[in-house]
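Review session, final week

We close the course with one last complete record, chosen because it touches almost every idea we covered. It is DNA-3-methyladenine glycosylase II, a protein from Polaribacter gangjinensis with 194 residues. Go through it on your own first, then we will talk.
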Amino acid sequence: MSKPFSDSILEKIRQQLAVPHIITTNDVFHDVISCIVEQQIHYRSSKRIFAKALERSGLERVSLETFDLFEKHGISQLKLSMSKFETLMAFLDFWRNNTQDFSLLTDEEVKTTLSGIKGIGTWTIDMILLYTLQRPNVFPVDDFHVKQVMISLYQLHPTQKLKANMLAIAEQWGHQKSLATLYLLDWKKQQKMK
């Protein structure tokens, strides 16, 4: 069981649910490609775009060495927007020229490094920190699902100071922002199943 939260809404959820568990790939390259192609990483859309592209390529995981195969058989049929394609190419260029181990970087170093790649935004970086690198204090304030669940649970107005209000609530979570986020997302999944 995890430590109690001072946020009463989140604490009630913590008491109802098992501690969230992430099965991570530990593979920054694969997960960034997934984010670019599908704009989802761990709660994949029902379309399973990325998974289907992998299947068509005969791959379980995409790497720099297998990207050409993935591009030819997996994503060529997807009709990616020009901006997504340009982001993929920028990321490939970056990866070919950089061999750093992201697990050794601080959160800020990961943010600085990835945000320097054209087309890689805050959401993708937050997903990599939260799911791939499993950092403990990540709050993906721009995530659609996090916004939805917080609007619902905390009675937030969807257009008035939403981000500021979400950040203020997240401050109550101290250095457990990742765990808090995972509880919120698990709660949302549970509600869908009812």
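Two points worth writing down before the exam:
The CA atoms of residues 53 and 74 lie 4 Å apart.
The chain is about 60% helix and 0% strand.
Good luck, everyone.
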